[in-house]
Every structure is written in structure tokens, then in C-alpha cells.
Write a structure and sequence with these properties.
This protein has about 525 residues and is an alpha/beta fold. Among the domains are: about 70 residues, no CATH class; about 190 residues, 3-Layer(aba) Sandwich (Rossmann fold). Helices cover about 35% and strands about 25% of the residues. The chain has a 6-stranded mixed β-sheet, with helices on both faces. It is globular, with a radius of gyration of 25 Å.
Length: about 525
């Protein structure tokens, strides 16, 4: 006998009003989630997966409209339910873990109050009872010292702790269904693993079902009983996780599998030169704290980066890797240590020559490009600043660079708002290469991108290095990404380098316990998948 689904979505279609015409985001989605089951909805940005999840509890944008179809939860129809009926379901019977804890928590309310609010709104506890229960729920969600956390504000917690608070809010009323919308996409892989492990444990204890929205097939492979693959608003493939991973039927699923960093076969990197470009010795950086104290963000870091080589600095948030990158570029002053660039001591220098020969690619392609500039102006700006060539030669250089990063010349007159995240990052790479630098510091350059776009950008960086001989200092928290691009890896923790080695050597035989912890956190390792899906 087939059990009745807890959640049943039938022929769901959702559109968004725009100035020109309605845009269909979800087009005929049908799926089921049963009690105690975890179903992962996987796809790139714009595939409609988050819209589908939010349509379940009708938490859609003001310009969104459900065009057709139905949503049933535990026998109750939700797609046309009254606001009053929805309020009895949201939070109480369906819990939502949103993607971004930075905007999902009220910045002026204490953590304990925000958890307690769920209990009070649904009549599950009085105000005094809710305050006590909130601490218990925070403890259940895995927050250390929950009584203290309950008295704190969101800005006083780390990203991982804030995400645990969102999980606490979602599970507060013991819901039958938890919708987790990219719950760990902004977190380090080790924190991601801890949080997903904990969520899985809580779900197993309560018997709740989970609808997990993610762009990463490796995460879905680790966590889901069934996978639903979405593309352009439609379901293109669905089935048990093991089946989809081992024998994907749709070309788009195979593309996602081939793009996931932790599921890709590592690229064989040609040996770089042995000629040093960057030599860092005992580099340190302290930041002052209130009360005359200070914190050492970088503490005695030493490494060598050769010409044409990629050295990855890997570690969790707060390990000092991004600060090290900024010190190398002389964007901030070191407290101690020495930096040599191509044989010249630049420790106390901020010369124009260094600015010309060393460039930076930022993490966020949405914030790193001037929204007022066209793509042509963005790429040509470094050339104008250093008075390289005339107007015609700069325009020709911009066209050449755009072609080199695989974008059509028709994009030269577009502005950043008219580009996708992957296109913006390609423009940022073109700008960084405009002056033919010897060194590019890549600060988490793909962490804000979908896995398929990540793969394209990583392949592009490898190709450009082969063509130009540029060296990369590649900053990342994700060892799966690093494996695709680095010749050597330096693992950072608490401001220090704890292990350095070739990429193959470090992955094959990690020496430090922290390196082993980072490697163990890579998703998708235990799940068999199609060899044919690999590039």
C-alpha cells in the first residue's frame, strides 16, 4: 500500500510580473514528499527551485502569482488558502530555514526572543515558558552556551551560529515538514557539514520530512533520499539519489554532475616554473581591539609562489587567508615580516609598478564592478589609469580580453546589472588581466557562483594561465575547488600555515589533523556516481 504524501505539488506554475511582460519561473511542477523523507530540489540560479519551495507556504514576492496547479499539505490545500489558514501552518507545521542568515534575522531583537516568538504566536507557550523553551531549542540546534546566545543580537554571532539560530526557529514548534532553502550555501564547508549533520540528526529524531533546495548535487547526494532536478522552471529528472547519481538520464543532470567540484576528476596541472615571483617571510598582521587588546589575523606566515604557478591558501573564515592576500598586494600594512616581489622588497612600498603587475579578483561579482560603467569602461579603466595606449588601442584590447574570457563583443556596452553572476565574474577577470599582470590574487572568486558557472570560471583561469604565464594566489575555503586549479596548497588556521604541499600530495596523504578535517567535509564523497559524467 502506497502511503499518502505529506506534501503534494501538482502542475504548479508561478510567474513574476515585470515592466514588459510576465516571466514564467515555474512551469508545471509536480512532486511529492513523504513523512520522514528528504527530497532535494537541485538546479542552477533561475531554475525555479526556490520559487517552488516558497510557493508551498505562499511566501512569494509581491509581483509573483500562482497561475495554476495545487499544493496540498497533510490533506490541506495551501495554494488558495486564506491568510488566516496559512498562519496556522507556517512555523507550526511547516518550518522554513532561509538561505541568508544576515537578512533573515531581526537585527534589533535578541536571539532568544526570535525563537520564543514562534512558540508564542502559535499558542504553544506563555511568555515566561517561551523564554525557557527558547534556550532549550537553541541547545537542541547545537549552539554552544545557549543561555548566553539567547541574550545576544544577530551581529554578535558568526555566520554558522546565525544559521543554527534559523534552524532553531524552524524546528521550534516540531513541524512535520522543514523547507531548507540553500541553508548552508554561504558557509565554510566544515561548518556546512556540521550544520547539515545536525539538521539530519534532528529530522531523524522527530520523523519530520525535509524539502532541501540546493544548487550543489554533491550536497544533495549526501543528504537526500530522492533528487528532483530542475532547469528553466521545469523538472527534467527525478528519482532515488543512488539511481540519479549512478545513471543520470538527462543531459542537464550530467552537466551538473560534471560541474560539481567535489565530483569532478582533478585536472592534471603542468609543472610550473621554479623561478620565485613572490616570497613571503614571517608575515604578521595585528588588528587593535577595544581596551588596548589586539588580535593576530596573520601570525608568522611564510611561503613562495613561483612564476606561472597557482598556490592556494585554504582555510575557514577567520583563518587569515584573505588578509594575507591583501598584505601581499599592499592594500594593508603588515605588522611584521618581509614581502619580496620579483626580487624587490615591497614590504614598505606601495609603488605604481606593483599596482600594474599585481591585480585582484574579488569574491563578490555583484559588488566589485561599478554599476555606472559599461563593460568596455570597466575593462579599459586600468589601461587609462596607467596611460597605456590610445583610445582605439584600448578599445581593441577590451574586445580582445572579452573574447579571451569567452564573452561576445556585444556585451561591451552593457552594464553590470544586465549580466549574470558568471558573466560579471568573467568581466572582473578580463579587467584584472588588462595590464598583463604577473600576479593575480583570486579572493574566493567562485564561491558566490553556481557550481556549473564555477566550473567554467575555473577552467577559464587554468586556460588563461597556460596562455599568459600569470601566477595565481588563490584564496578559498573549499578544497574541492582548490583541487581543480592549484599546483600547491597551503592550509591556514588561526593565522598560521599548518601544512603545505603539492595538491596531489596533500589530497593523497594529508599530514595535519585540520587538513584531514577539511578533506572529510567535502560533500559527495561517499556516493557512487556516473564516471561518464566527469569531464
Amino acid at each position: 500500500m502506497v502511503s499518502t504524501p505529506l506534501l503534494e505539488i501538482s502542475d504548479l506554475a508561478v510567474s513574476y510580473r515585470t515592466r514588459s511582460a510576465p516571466v514564467t519561473a515555474v512551469d508545471g511542477i509536480t512532486l511529492e514528499v513523504h513523512k520522514g523523507e528528504t527530497v532535494a530540489v537541485v538546479g542552477e540560479s533561475g531554475s525555479g527551485k526556490s520559487t517552488t519551495a516558497h510557493a508551498v507556504v505562499r511566501l512569494l514576492a509581491d509581483n509573483a502569482r500562482i497561475e495554476r496547479g495545487s499544493v496540498h499539505f497533510a490533506g490541506q490545500r495551501l495554494d488558495n488558502a486564506s491568510p488566516r489558514a496559512l498562519r496556522t501552518v507556517r512555523g507550526a507545521r511547516i518550518g522554513l530555514v532561509p538561505q541568508d542568515p544576515a537578512v533573515s534575522l531581526n537585527p534589533v531583537k535578541r536571539i532568544g526572543e526570535q525563537v520564543a516568538e514562534v512558540l508564542r504566536l502559535h499558542g504553544l507557550a506563555t511568555r515566561p515558558q517561551a523564554a525557557v523553551r527558547a534556550v532549550e531549542i537553541l541547545d537542541k540546534a547545537g549552539l554552544p552556551d545557549p543561555a548566553t546566545r539567547a541574550r545576544q543580537y544577530p551581529h554578535e554571532l558568526s555566520g554558522g551560529m546565525r544559521q543554527r539560530v534559523l534552524i532553531a526557529i524552524a524546528i521550534a514548534a516540531d513541524p512535520a515538514l522543514i523547507i531548507a532553502d540553500e541553508p548552508t550555501s554561504a558557509l565554510d564547508v566544515t561548518v556546512q557539514k556540521v550544520i547539515l549533520d545536525h539538521l539530519q540528526h534532528l529530522v531523524a529524531e522527530s520523523g519530520a520530512a525535509v524539502l532541501l533546495v540546493t544548487h550543489d548535487l554533491a550536497v544533495a547526494a549526501d543528504r537526500a533520499d530522492r533528487i528532483v532536478v530542475m532547469s528553466q522552471g521545469r523538472i527534467v529528472e527525478t528519482g532515488p539519489t543512488a539511481t540519479v547519481m549512478a545513471d543520470p538520464q538527462h543531459e542537464y543532470t550530467r552537466k551538473l554532475l560534471a560541474a560539481a567540484p567535489s565530483l569532478r576528476s582533478p585536472q592534471v596541472r603542468a609543472r610550473a616554473t621554479e623561478e620565485p615571483l613572490l616570497v613571503v617571510e614571517d608575515l604578521a598582521k595585528e588588528f587593535p581591539l577595544p581596551g588596548g587588546k589586539s588580535v593576530k589575523a596573520v601570525d608568522g606566515v611564510s611561503f613562495t609562489l613561483n612564476k606561472g604557478e597557482t598556490l592556494a591558501l585554504v582555510g575557514e573564515s577567520g583563518s587569515g587567508k584573505s588578509t594575507t592576500g591583501r598584505l601581499v598586494l599592499r592594500l594593508t600594512d603588515p605588522t611584521a615580516g618581509v614581502i619580496h616581489f620579483d626580487g624587490t622588497d615591497i614590504t614598505a612600498s606601495k609603488s605604481r609598478e606593483l599596482r600594474r603587475r599585481a591585480q585582484l579578483i574579488y569574491q563578490n561579482p555583484y559588488a566589485s564592478l561599478d554599476p555606472r560603467f559599461t563593460v568596455a569602461q570597466i575593462i579599459e579603466e586600468p589601461l587609462k589609469v596607467f596611460r597605456v595606449g590610445d583610445r582605439a588601442s584600448r578599445q581593441a584590447r577590451a574586445r580582445d580580453l572579452l573574447d579571451r574570457v569567452a564573452l561576445p563583443s556585444t556585451m561591451l556596452q552593457r552594464r553590470p546589472a544586465e549580466l549574470s553572476g558568471g558573466q560579471r565574474q568573467r568581466v572582473a577577470i578580463a579587467r584584472a588581466l588588462a595590464l598583463s599582470p604577473d600576479l593575480v590574487v583570486c579572493d574566493e572568486p567562485v564561491s558566490a557562483l553556481d557550481v556549473s558557472v564555477q566550473a567554467q570560471v575555473l577552467d577559464l583561469l587554468v586556460e588563461l594561465q597556460a596562455d599568459t604565464g600569470v601566477a595565481y594566489l588563490f584564496v578559498s575555503h573549499d578544497l574541492a575547488v582548490v583541487r581543480q586549479i592549484a599546483h600547491r596548497v597551503a592550509v591556514m588556521r588561526h593565522g598560521r600555515i599548518v601544512e603545505t604541499g603539492t595538491t596531489a600530495g596533500l589530497f593523497g596523504s594529508p599530514q595535519h589533523e585540520y587538513t584531514r578535517e577539511l578533506l572529510a567535509a567535502i560533500p559527495g564523497q561517499a556516493v557512487p556516481h556516473s564516471e561518464g559524467a566527469h569531464p
